Amino acid sequence: MLTACFTGVESTKAITQKDVKRAYEGSAEAVDADRGKLYATTPAPFVEWQHGKRFFVTDDNVKLLFAPTAAMAGNTSLQQHYLSYRGYGTDTSIDGKECVTIDFADESGNEYKLPTGKTLDELKNPYTIPFLIDMDEVLELRSMLTGKEVYVKTPLWYDSEGNAINGRRYVKVRILDVLPGNKVFAYRLRFSDEEKQVEAFVYMSSVQSSVQNRTYTDLFSDTDVRLRYPEISDENWACIVRGDVAIGMTKDECRLSLGSPKTLNRRPTYDGVVEYWSYDNGVYLIFEDGLLARYRK
After folding, report:
1. Over its length of 297 residues, how does the chain's per-residue pLDDT go in tens digits?
2. What whole-number distance in Å separates Cα of residue 245 and Cα of residue 254?
């Protein structure tokens, strides 16, 4: 007769990213999140826009939002250029609403009109326009962050041309400038890694962005992360700084190096519980008795 040993693990459900996140609520990472709120900008409501307010154009697809004008007839690219706010007018829509049309001008004085489809009352809240970055927000963030010494938490660094380069985690850097970003991330932060004598960039999302995995909290810590983990050996910490893993590392060490997994599953075996971590980029980790036994990168 076949028998089975019930350990309570057999019915364990797959653990999702939300479960992983909840496990670290109240942790040092959560403290960083609270600090990060200090470096979040809030866009001004449309009714408070001042004449001359500037916007950085991230993509020429912004032209699809504008009404036909003489300027639209040409092939002039707006990408990487600036538009200035020149006021607004109203037009009556087919349903009788008085809808706002926003007037812009480029550096050469060419005019562009953006029909919002919204009334002035509907624009009392902050109004964001696709492919445009509000330079007031960039300047506000620049005043808050330039000159700060922080510890960078992401190895996703870029050069001045936007090419990915090998970065390091949890090393001290100095923020040198905040610049407008791209159509996904509103901000591009320039910083120096003085130990390696290099300058690099990271992209950061705004609080209004639908992409919320590149906030200040995700990118930086105001305190030395190494001090939180005195139990980690120097050898394993050097591995974490490189964003790498090694056989025998603990789950905490792997999380520090690669971030929290997208999914996490546990399965019972005769020798104990095996834990499987998977990431969006195809990385796969297998833990036995809480230590990394095998991995695929």
Report:
1. 333 333 333 344 455 555 545 544 444 554 455 455 566 677 888 989 999 999 999 999 999 999 987 767 667 889 999 999 999 999 888 888 899 999 999 999 999 999 999 999 988 888 889 999 999 999 999 999 999 999 999 999 999 999 999 899 999 999 999 999 999 999 999 999 988 899 999 999 987 776 667 889 989 999 999 999 999 999 999 999 999 999 999 999 999 999 889 999 998 888 788 999 999 889 999 999 899 999 998
2. 6
Q: What pTM was computed for the model?
A: 0.79
- Vertex 54, ends 41 and 147: CA angle to 5°? 50
Rounded Cα distance, 80 and 220, in Å: 27
Residues ≥6 apart with Cβ < 8 Å to 175: 145, 146, 147, 148, 149, 150, 189, 190, 191
